[in-house]
Amino acid sequence: MDKKELTAKVCDMVAKQLRKPVETVTVDKKLKEDLGADSLDVVEMMMGLEEKYGITIPDEELMNMKSIGDVVNYIFNATQKK
Fold this sequence. Notes:
There is one protein chain. The protein is mostly helical. The protein has 4 helices and no strands. Helix 1 crosses helix 2. The longest helix has 16 residues.
């Protein structure tokens, strides 16, 4: 999967989780500050992404993910190593 396709899928998933219009969820948006995600939202999203892509996101990595772009980069890199 290329990064553009992955970005679209992650944005779609985040939009559904946060009940936001998908066009407002872009790679540069911050999960908490821009999209209003709380800690539970973030954990639920990450669990869904872990399951969907067969990866594990360590808590310390999760704390460093502030934007959609951070999430996409992590998943892209993690799935390339498989």
